[in-house]
Amino acid sequence: MTAPATRAVRRRVLVRGTVQGVGFRPFVHRLATDLALAGFVSNTAGGVLIEVEGPPEGVAGFCDRLAAQAPPLAAVTGVGFEDLPATGDGGAFAIRSTDRSPGRTHLPPDTATCADCLRELADPADRRYRHPFVTCTHCGPRFTLATGMPYDRAVTTMSGFRMCADCAREYGDPRDRRFHAQPVACPGCGPRLRLVPASGSGVRPARDGGALAAARELLAAGRIVAVKGLGGYHLACDATDARTVRTLRTRKARGGKPFAVMAADLDAVRRIAVLTAAEETALTGPRRPIVLLRRRAEATGLAPGVCPGSPHLGVMLPYTPVHSLLFGLPGDPPGPRLLVMTSGNRSGEPIVTDDEEALTRLAGLADAWLAHDRPIASPCDDSLLRVRPDGTEQVLRRSRGYVPRPLLLPVPVRPALAVGGDLKNALCLGEGEHAWFGPHIGDMGDLATLEAARRAEAHLRCLTGVSPRLVAADRHPGYHSARLAARLAGQAPVRVQHHHAHIASAMAEHGLDGTSPVIGVAFDGTGYGDDGTVWGGEILLAGYTGFRRYARLSPAPLPGGDAGVANPCRLALARLWAAGLPWDPDLPCVTACAPGERALLERQLTGGLACVATSSMGRLFDAVSSLVGVCHRAGYEAQAALELEAAAATAWDADTSAYAFTGDLDPAPVLRALVADLRRGTPAPVLAARFHRAVARAVASVCRRAREDTGLATVALSGGVFANALLEEECARLLTGDGFAVLRHGEVPPNDGGLALGQLVVAAHLRQEE
Question: Which of 402, 408, 348 has its CA nearest to residue 380?
Fold first, then answer.
């Protein structure tokens, strides 16, 4: 007697997360086919919808393997199941067209070219040999070409490129790596490269392979080329050519700010920088950020003007086929192996994405433009991070490779927008359990940047489906971002204190629900305080719904307000004046100021003219940098503090002593000790190291006192000062050794680039409480 056939079952599955544009549907198709199951899969606005039918053990195995074996770029955040009546469907498993009903799914970030595509790029027998836009479901642009959701070619900037028959066949074949890879293209169907020379440059226009060859020749000849990338233009030049690097620095009015370097490969990186295994992982991963690496003392070839005054280099590897082709394939003439690759803009302006605009805004900067005809839907600058000694990453600029990947919120929020601050601006949208950062926008100093922020908000809203009913902004009355928030909201935004937002950002990143406050150490350069002064050296007892200022750095006058920040020598004199210490002529900061400048400064300080009180720790670092003779005039933000950290690093292991603050973070004893050691001839690096340790020990001391007073034992470190690796590591070491739980930033920047997340959760909790 024959055993009865197993009764078929049918199950509906909704997969949520980053599951579109990553090869998820062909993966589902292969899995179902291998298990001889019937049904279908379709993209929807809420994720990927699957109905699967077959023997119970086959359906169960399918569901078990769905998330565990997902494609490499997928990020499954939830899988929902619903049992349905079996239909008797015994046909082949099908891939259906996209369902555009309302809902939400997550778009993956732009991803570096995968190994398979690189092999095709370099293979003369492959039809995509030297194709500058080779891509597949495992790599390439997503965020910067998407104009809507659900993710489909019709809602990307590839919609204008008609696929040739070969590309269409790959696109429609579930067994192919390019099945529904929306940017799929080939030399026959575009996009196309073109080289546009600057007027009077003597360079001839070129297209396609000729454009790339001409660009390589120009770079090898010491010229500057504007290169259109995924999220905007870069200005590129040979990083080993001192004259060309000086020319680029002058044309861009860059001052002494370091340039990022793109290296052809890891061997080129190792010739200029010390590389740990964790740093190599960060460099070679699919995000391909700029990674801060320690410069080799014996580094040869790199032009001194690339990264003056810094022991670190910002290095990245090629992440598009165009970059790989610029360095050349086997058989190409030798060319530069290290390229300066800096954002294509003038100082203070947003990165350029539009081709015609690039010809205007980058005129006088570039000798030629290597452009292409695929439009960029959203600007997206390179991300920047450093790797800590324990292998964890601290993102300092969160943009390409990260955006628009969502962050999981500890408590659901109503639909909201936070606009961040005026420096290192990045917006943040949130709804329910998720928050989405927009790309790095920069400093909100002009109309072009404000317009870039407005467009970024509209693009992010389109891709996430969030329609904000609440808008949050900083309390600073003069912030451009706050005025933008008012226009976007159509009403007064919820104002969140700057340093409260910093601490809330760290809490949210670490999943704290806010039921218990933390000891928040908020150290930065400038933030508007509740008393109308400039804060920045704050110890807060903070939750999401409020904070109390427990302690702060003793204030000093900030002569000239924000304008004084460019003159650390003046800040040093103001700190000496506040500490009751004389301006003796043997002090470096005194000799750096001309007699007339000192006389004017003295009148300002004694009369309180054009001075505002500040408790900023960032300004104290600037002042000490000048006091010990490291940096007296700053050509870019945080230059004095960065150079002080660099000096301290050279003496860190050789001298482990420290100065001591007194009372409520009063630096007067530290300043007196610094002056005394200066007169003894103590080297500046030793002074810098002792100062860093003094700040870390003061933080640990105040946090211990706060724990005794309140019972709190969790400390959050946030604010731009904690981009200082020496200080952050020493604070964390001392606090952890003292039994504290220490929250440090990872994916969310500690500087103002992470401010919007804190604004979002604080505003949402305040409104919920109301």
Answer: 402
Residue 295's CB is within 10 A of a number of other CB atoms, namely 18
Q: What pLDDT shows up at residue 104?
A: 63
Q: Taking 90 as the threshold, does the pLDDT of residue 208 lie above it?
A: yes
Contact 107, 182 (CB under 8 A): no
Say whether both 679 and 601 belong to one domain.
yes
> Looking at residue 28, which CATH number applies to its domain?
3.30.70.100
Can you give the pLDDT at residue 228? 97
The H or E element spanning position 120 is: helix 115-121
Task: Report CA-CA distances (Å) from 58 to 8, 63, 298, 605.
Answer: 10, 9, 61, 80
Check residues 366 and 310 and name the one with the higher pLDDT.
366
pLDDT, tens only, 376-385? 999 999 999 9
Amino acid at 323: H
227 and 219 Cβ atoms separated by less than 8 Å: no
- Tell me the H-state helices in 254-405: 266-270, 277-284, 321-327, 355-361
Q: Are 714 and 703 in contact (CB under 8 A)?
A: no
> Which CATH number belongs to the domain containing residue 454 in this structure?
3.30.420.360
The 10s digit of each residue's pLDDT in 38-74 is 999 988 877 889 999 999 999 999 999 988 888 888 8
- CA distance to 41, 298, 673, per residue, from 66 (Å): 12, 50, 64
CA 43 to chain centre: 29
404: preceding bond cis by omega (within 30 degrees)? yes
Q: Are residues 247 and 368 in the same domain?
A: yes
pTM: 0.92
Cα–Cα dist 689/692, whole Å: 5
Structure tokens at 517: 């406050």
Instruction: Specify the number of domains making up the chain.
Output: 4
Q: How many whole angstroms separate alpha carbon 362 and alpha carbon 353?
A: 11
Integer Cα distance of 317 and 306 in angstroms: 16
What ranges make up the beta strands (E) of 161-232?
193-197, 206-207, 225-228
SS3 692: helix
Same-domain status, 581 and 613: yes
Span 99-144, pLDDT tens digits: 655 456 688 999 999 999 999 999 999 999 999 999 999 999 999 9
Report if residue 475 sits inside a domain: yes
Q: Are 222 and 244 a contacting pair, CB within 8 Å?
A: yes
The rounded distance, in Å, linking the Cα atoms of 623 and 640 is: 8
- Structure tokens of 389? 């000694």
CA-to-CA distance for 386 and 284, rounded, in angstroms? 14
Q: Is residue 186 part of a domain?
A: no
- In this structure, are 310 and 342 located in the same domain? yes
Residue 769 has pLDDT above 70, yes or no: no
Token output for 281: 């992982």
3-state secondary structure of 603: helix
pLDDT in tens, 483-522: 888 887 777 899 999 999 999 999 999 999 999 999 999 9
Going by C-alpha positions, the residue among 19, 72, 12, 74 that lies closest to residue 46 is 19
Domain holding 445, by residue range, is 395-497+752-769
- Peptide bond before 191: cis, by omega within 30 degrees of 0? yes
What is the CA angle 737-738-742, rounded to 5? Answer: 80
Residue with tokens 């990165």: 351
Of the candidates 185, 119, 121, the residue with the CA atom closest to the CA atom of residue 153: 185
Claim to verify: residue 211 and residue 249 sit in the same structural domain: yes
Same domain, 399 and 359: no
Question: Does pLDDT of 337 surpass 80?
Answer: yes
The span from the CA of 750 to the CA of 230, in Å, is: 26
Percent of the chain past pLDDT 70, that is, above it, reads: 98
How far CA 688 is from CA of 659, 660, 684, in Å, comes to 10, 13, 6
Smallest Cα–Cα separation from 413: which of 429, 399, 400?
429
Mean pLDDT, the chain, as a whole number? 93
298-317 pLDDT, tens per residue?
Answer: 767 899 999 987 889 999 99
